[in-house]
Design goal:
The chain is an alpha/beta fold and 331 residues long. The protein has 13 helices and 11 strands.
């Protein structure tokens, strides 16, 4: 890495983001910061196919390249040749790949990661330190959605639901990270008794979770799992008074959109993936085995989430909204 960088020569920037949607959202503060520092530069993003829709049509990103790491060697070679032809001035590689070397960019971030930092969001942001000072807690300014996409989402919500809207996401990228449906049902019933409006969100593969919750709760709720696109979901979340979610893409969206969020953790580490603040709460059982961050539970049962009581989540919601004056949790 050169000791001096001529920032005036940075006209074409490539950001190599991560693969899955949740991890990709954690990289968006980097893109926001680059756009703010280089307002007239052309910013391209390499991302996994599932997360492409997050960036397409955004005013923050000019170009999106879908990279499938499972593709053939020939397609990967063609992909590198295509990127090389773009002649990027700066590459910010958040996956620590060989791509910056192969495409011969003028500048790139360091291959070394600051191991002293636990938060993945902060680790990504620190990759910009060699360019300009970064506040590790910077707000996200990436526009996840258009006004049209937000309006489309809100049209699917009953008009009376827009005030004190509670968005609940029972899904997650892995079954291991999902809290019990009985727990979510108990929380929803608590809100319904207080005449709060509930909207379920999630992806099409999680549609069965929404159907089961509809059957398990005491009154009708709005189930939009599998109905909204990723960006429409972001538009809806931006209007939520409260978001309750597992460690998932919805949780990361809620954090970056600065919504009051109660996050439910089991095997994963909230110090890595959650955000702290007056409008954030994390709920977990503190066991000897947590957080294990394992792909499969090594025990006979998943106690970290199966034994997590709904009262803990409800208490976190009550505590959270003691700080939010425009939400009346108690009637």
């Amino acid at each position: 890495m050169p000791t001096e960088i001529d920032l005036t020569q940075v006209q074409k920037i490539l950001v190599i983001s991560t693969t899955n949607i949740g991890d990709t959202i954690l990289t968006t503060p980097v893109i926001s910061s680059l756009r703010e520092r280089f307002p007239s530069s052309h910013i391209s993003v390499v991302v996994g196919p599932a997360a492409c829709s997050l960036f397409k049509g955004s005013r923050t990103v000019n170009e999106v390249f879908a990279y499938d790491k499972k593709s053939s060697w020939l397609k990967q070679f063609q992909f590198i040749v295509m990127l090389r032809s773009r002649k990027f001035d700066l590459v910010i590689d958040l996956r620590n790949t060989a791509i910056p070397l192969l495409i011969n960019s003028r500048y790139r971030n360091s291959i070394f990661v600051d191991r002293s930092r636990i938060s993945m969001r902060e680790k990504h942001l620190m990759q910009l330190d060699f360019l300009f000072p970064i506040n590790g807690r910077c707000e996200n300014r990436f526009n996840f959605f258009t006004q049209e996409e937000q309006a489309c989402a809100l049209e699917k919500v009953p008009a009376s639901s827009e005030d004190n809207l509670i968005v609940i996401a029972p899904g997650a990228g892995s079954d291991l990270k999902r809290w019990t449906l009985s727990g979510f049902a108990e929380v929803i019933n608590c809100f319904l008794k207080k005449d709060k409006r509930i909207v379920l969100v999630g992806w099409e593969r999680e549609s069965n979770l929404g159907l089961e919750l509809e059957r398990a709760v005491s009154r009708p709720i709005t189930n939009l799992i599998g109905v909204l696109s990723l960006r429409e979901s972001a538009g809806l979340i931006a209007r939520a008074s409260l978001v309750i979610a597992n460690d998932s893409a919805v949780m990361h969206l809620s954090h970056e959109l600065n919504r009051p969020t109660v996050s439910i953790f089991g095997p994963t580490n909230e110090k890595k993936y959650a955000q702290t603040g007056s409008n954030r709460r994390q709920v977990r059982l503190h066991l000897d085995c947590t957080p294990c961050e394992a792909a499969q539970c090594r025990l006979s049962r998943r106690a970290c989430l199966d034994d997590l009581p709904a009262t803990s989540v409800i208490r976190a919601c009550e505590e959270l909204f003691n700080h939010v004056s425009d939400f009346s949790f108690k009637r």
